[in-house]
Sequence to fold (400 residues):
Amino acid sequence: MVGRRRVIGGMGLAALASPALAQKLFDLGLPGGPGEREITTAYPQKGAMILQRARPPLLETPMSVFDGPDVFTPNDRFFVRWHWGDIPAVINVDTFRLAVRGAVQTPLSLSLADLLRDFPRVELAAINQCSGNSRGLFVPRVPGAQWGHGAMGNARWWGVRLKDVLDRAGVKPGALAVRFDGLDKPLVPKADDFAKSLALDHARDGEVMIAYAQNGEALPWLNGFPLRLVVPGWFSTYWIKMLNDIEVIDAPDSNYWMTTAYKIPDTPLANVVPGTTGFKTVPISTMPPRAWITNLSQGAKVRAGRAVVLRGIAMGGTESVARVEISSDNGRTWLPTTLGPDRGRYGFRRFDVSITLPQGEVPLSVRATNRAGETQPMTQNWNPGGYRRAGVETISVTAA
Ligand SMILES: Nc1nc2c(c(=O)[nH]1)N[C@H]1C(S)=C(S)[C@@H](COP(=O)(O)O)O[C@H]1N2
Ligand SMILES: [Mo]
Fold:
């Protein structure tokens, strides 16, 4: 699965994003005007992606990709997000080591071969979704990457249990948390290196995984080759890419990315009234249920008075999707949909339904509910970070 020596990306990232390579513009449909972005095919191992930023790269998956028959997002269309620009373009798989250190009995320095040979391989389907997915749709608008809905993807991950690796090192009594760091670095020395932590019990839950493969192939370079953390049900800020350092810590993690960034209001749905200040915040964690229609987009034209098929994808967050419903009257009445096969509780589930629409402009809303009964509100939640959008998504179509 991992070749003897793998050299990725010969050119610098700046060269990759030259405007001359832009093919066309894509309108993300963000509120308040055109949200036009270039479509780029200039990044290694990536097909056509929406270019949010060239360096460090932010590449968004076009919604049409999620309309495919499969629930898994192809690696070459899987979104990309990095905080800092110093991303190694060459990784030697012979000399690469994953360190496990800190409050452990035996510090480890694991080669890729060690991981493949010495630990049981596990497989899990899970959605990797940026905390700020759909941020561009927040009203009022908030600063940060102006994502549409495509800062997410679902994959089958292969790897080893983080628990097995921690057990091999032997966590010392009194340890509190585990911090994860990757090979990428800030370009300026004073900036805070990107690192995230999980509570020890969470890290040892047997599901959190150190993944070396995505949809049956080595991880794409921009998605974290050769190793990344997979934290099922949690937002991807914790899914550290190019993971090379695991530190067991015995005091709370005081790093910037845990204490200042990625904090959300400690309120139901992380919701506050715009303009509110002084609210208590907590680190972002689990994902809520969400759903999208994928075969029609905002402004689509459909036939009135006869059956129209609607289909799309839904996610349950921490539990399986239990049902997906459609409304064409702003949430007054809901129509059940048929769910596709369940390919894993942390992954996407397809749905479809046939609906007959009256003539005119029709709002089409889609609502997911998970097995725990958690569902989507009609009104969107809002917070100044543009995090954890959870409400029902509505598109308006014209039936004639
Ligand atoms: N090493 C490293 N890992 C990282 C990040 C990063 O900047 N560096 N960003 C995180 C965030 S915020 C997101 S949204 C996901 C994006 O994962 P992807 O690029 O594979 O889609 O990576 C996470 N892991
Ligand atoms: Mo993110």
Remarks:
- The CA atoms of residues 31 and 176 lie 43 Å apart.
- The chain has three domains: 6-81, 95-268, 290-399.
- Confidence is low (pLDDT under 50) at residues 1-22.
- The two ends are 52 Å apart (CA to CA).
